[in-house]
């Protein structure tokens, strides 16, 4: 009886907290207290964020992960000194490669009432918020006109908002094998039969991501949640464009491979080659999961000529053996993941 009473008390307290939050209008995202001084790992993460050319500012924020549910209709945000209200467009639960669940929440920022889209799942490309709730962390992207914001966890219990200038993003590079067409490639791994969906016009492409462990450490957040955000942004672009394609994350591998920071294109070539001794186990996992597309995530540093890159595809229009692309994780908020995957799907 004591156990039952304790559980009931916890339930009452939780419901009361949720009620009070809604009653007082406490924002889902707001200003955080002063950063803990002397936290060297956190300060190092902030310095890494500030070093990216497109970063305008970084601010620690408080985030309430309990506010993100499949049924949540509206969110209040206090974003960089001004309040914003977001209304839900859609939400869904996705299964991560390790079997855990994440919630995706798609919304439009107010004022949006004057916009009447032709399809209910349309998301305003210049006035939106997309979030991934994984455990007690939130990873997301917000676009408000010309302003681009990235929400990301730093460690298990702290979050920051990064204000990005999309005009200062590094470029996406030309395809590595831009001189070859898909018909020139040798046949190899055959992707699995595409899974039928409730919508017979919808084709699902399974995606695998490969990330060096050093890149995971550099990020200091939930890398799987970031990948799910990249997939979610791509899928929303297909919805907005009325294209019958959906991506699904089926495999994620953190590899011990030491990335070539100055020449990440070499990493992609090595990943694609199944017999060169570099990341060959990734190809084995790709074949086992029958992934249709493989994306390599990297953290770019200045190349030999002083430039940075946001991403690159192996070629435009791919066969089974050549459906490989690479994406700088710092550019995901600016839709680089979407851009490179669509290159593999023959878009220019």
Summarize the structure.
The protein has 348 residues and is of the alpha+beta class. Helix content is 25%, strand content 30%.
Describe it for me?
The protein is of the alpha+beta class and 348 residues long. The protein is built from seven helices and 14 strands. The protein has a nine-stranded antiparallel β-sheet with strand order 1-2-9-8-7-6-5-4-3, covered by helices on one side. It has a five-stranded mixed β-sheet with strand order 11-10-12-14-13, with helices on both faces. α4 packs across α7 (336-344). The longest helix is centred in the first third of the chain and has 23 residues, at 2-24. The chain is globular and about 55 Å long. The model is unreliable at 2-24 and 178-197 (pLDDT under 50).
- The topology string of helices and strands comes to HEHEEEEEEEEEHHEHHEEEH
Largest sheet: 9 strands, antiparallel
Count the DSSP helices. 7
Query: Which ranges are low-confidence, i.e. pLDDT below 50, for 5 or more consecutive residues?
Result: 2-24, 178-197
Structural class: alpha+beta
From the alpha carbons, calculate the radius of gyration and give it in angstroms: 21 Å
Query: Which strand-content bin applies to the residues?
Result: 25-35%
With strands numbered from the N-terminus, the spatial order across the biggest sheet is: 1-2-9-8-7-6-5-4-3
Mean pLDDT: 82
- Give the proportion of residues in helices: 25-40%
Shape: globular
Number of strand segments: 14
How would you summarize the topology of this molecule?
Layout: H1 2-24, E1 29-31, H2 40-51, E2 55-63, E3 74-79, E4 82-95, E5 101-109, E6 127-134, E7 137-144, E8 147-153, E9 159-164, E10 203-212, H3 213-219, H4 223-240, E11 245-255, H5 264-272, H6 280-289, E12 293-298, E13 311-313, E14 324-328, H7 336-344
Parallel strand pairs: 10-11, 10-12, 12-14
Antiparallel strand pairs: 1-2, 2-9, 3-4, 4-5, 5-6, 6-7, 7-8, 8-9, 13-14
């Amino acid at each position: 009886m004591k156990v039952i009473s304790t559980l009931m008390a916890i339930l009452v307290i939780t419901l009361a907290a949720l009620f009070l939050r809604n009653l007082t209008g406490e924002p889902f995202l707001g200003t955080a207290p002063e950063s803990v001084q002397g936290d060297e790992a956190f300060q190092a993460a902030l310095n890494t964020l500030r070093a990216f050319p497109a970063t305008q500012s970084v601010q620690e924020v408080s985030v309430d992960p309990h506010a993100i549910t499949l049924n949540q209709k509206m969110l209040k945000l206090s974003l960089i000194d001004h309040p914003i209200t977001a209304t839900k467009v859609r939400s869904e639960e996705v299964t991560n490669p390790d079997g855990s669940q994440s919630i995706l929440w798609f919304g439009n920022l107010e004022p949006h009432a004057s916009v009447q889209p032709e399809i209910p799942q349309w998301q305003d490309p210049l006035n939106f918020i997309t979030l991934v709730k994984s455990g007690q962390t939130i990873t997301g992207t917000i676009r408000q006109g010309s302003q681009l914001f990235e929400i990301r966890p730093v460690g298990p219990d702290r979050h920051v908002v990064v204000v990005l200038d999309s005009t200062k993003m590094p470029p996406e590079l030309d395809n590595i094998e831009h001189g070859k067409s898909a018909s020139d490639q040798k046949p190899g791994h055959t992707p699995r039969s595409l899974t039928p969906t409730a919508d017979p016009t919808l084709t699902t492409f399974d995606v695998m991501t490969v990330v060096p462990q050093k890149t995971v450490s550099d990020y200091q957040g939930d890398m799987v949640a970031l990948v799910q955000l990249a997939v979610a942004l791509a899928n929303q672009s297909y919805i907005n464009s009325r294209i019958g394609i959906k991506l699904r994350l089926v495999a994620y591998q953190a590899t011990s491979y030491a990335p070539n920071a100055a020449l990440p294109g070499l990493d992609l070539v090595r990943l694609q080659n199944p017999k060169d001794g570099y990341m060959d186990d990734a190809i084995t996992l790709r074949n086992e999961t029958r992934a249709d597309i493989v994306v390599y995530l990297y953290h770019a540093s200045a190349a030999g000529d002083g430039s940075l890159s946001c991403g690159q595809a192996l070629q435009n229009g791919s066969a089974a053996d050549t459906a490989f692309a690479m994406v700088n994780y710092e550019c995901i908020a600016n839709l680089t993941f979407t851009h490179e995957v669509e290159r593999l799907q023959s878009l220019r």
